[in-house]
Specification:
Dihydrodipicolinate Reductase, domain 2; Rossmann fold; 34% helix; 14 helices; 485 residues; 2 domains; alpha/beta
Length: 485
Amino acid sequence: MAASEFAADRLLLFGATGDLSRRKLLPSLCALDADGLLPEKLKIIGTARSDLDDAGFRDMARAALEEFLPAERRGSMAGFLNRLSYQPLDASTLDGFDALAAKIADAGPSDGLAIFLSTAPSLFGPTIAGLEKAGLTGENVRMCLEKPLGTDLASSAEINDAVAAAFPEERIFRIDHYLGKETVQNLLALRFANILFEPIWNSNVIEHVQITVAETVGLEGRVGFYNDAGALRDMVQNHMLQLLALVAMEPPTSFDATAVRDEKVKVLRALREATAGETVTGQYRAGASSGAAVPGYDEELGEASDTETFVAIKAHVDNWRWKGVPFYLRTGKRLPERVTEILVQFRSVPHSIFEGTGGGALHPNRLLIEIQPDENITLSLMAKVPGLDEDGVRLREVPLAITMPDAFAEAQRRIAYERLLLDLIKGDQTLFVRRDEVEAQWNWIDGIRAGWEANDIKPQTYMAGSWGPSGAVALTERDGVSWHE
């Protein structure tokens, strides 16, 4: 049975008492319920190690909703809480899975079950084995996996093999929550719903592309995970490569899961192996963030470490469309601003008719797609300054801006997980990541890490509150390019 052939009316949340559930999953589901978007019969069963009963789980959920979901989006919270039930489970053993299956059955006859697995990757195998033993992997069951999905290609393949032993690819939903963000989806609309851009979306007109994912925070309680992962695995491998794929992909034949993901994986497979001179790695030291003094990474960690908290990469997509167009990727912690954006830099006009008229220098057109914290699209154009001037025509760069909240003031701004959870329930895989995408991403990332090890490349230090190490500036400036800041 294909994933899209049934709508789930049971949703099983592993890790239901964890931080992701409290901050994102339960608020997203409650907001969907308030808007009447959840199936009427949908029941939500939470499971985790916490020793709670149904009432205790509902109390925890109520507290999470009051903390993380605005009051105007909660709707009838009592109605949503009545959808919830709970079954304690230690997923590392098979003992409790029969009781979990019985709890799901208590909710009544079901047309389909969706499972959201948000646990440590070490528990993926035992969890799948337990679900299979309890009869919870049948044709009317689909599985959603929250990252991280491994630390390299080999470990990722091991996890995917364990899941594939019980679920075919059409019933596996791998989440990258960036794909649920409105502006990320709007990138597809911008490219493929407007004839203006597609004819110029190539190396003839585009000079380079910049993708920045900057964070102001440090470790923030993720010490164990982050020191093992680092910025390359944590941000570049998934979020940033997905953004790159959406920018660079060929037009799919339709807005269909297979068609869209086929084109993304072609881009990921076309990524040229990055050389040592095309990457910069850094680690922050003590400085200032948001006007307050903050410690360095080594101080937060309590020991010296070679884990990178910053990465800049000059990437190339070796295909006809993007030949010679560099993609500059940059991500880091303790940077000056929290921002995720894509800058498409167009080439200069081949000849300026305004040269010698006193009009000033021409600036190449730029398209800036802001994803967070604000969702905006800005096209920078050259225009004549109004008025009379004895020296000739004066020109100035002006922004043609679409502020998404203003353009769609009547539309509700949503949490990214709302879109993804709803698609999971419905069975639409378009905004989820396919196995061959994941493996193409890891293959490229593993090549970069191998290069660092072979060349003994260690992170350069940078002050917290700055835009990273000086090497990141040199990476672009030797091409005559400056980072957008």
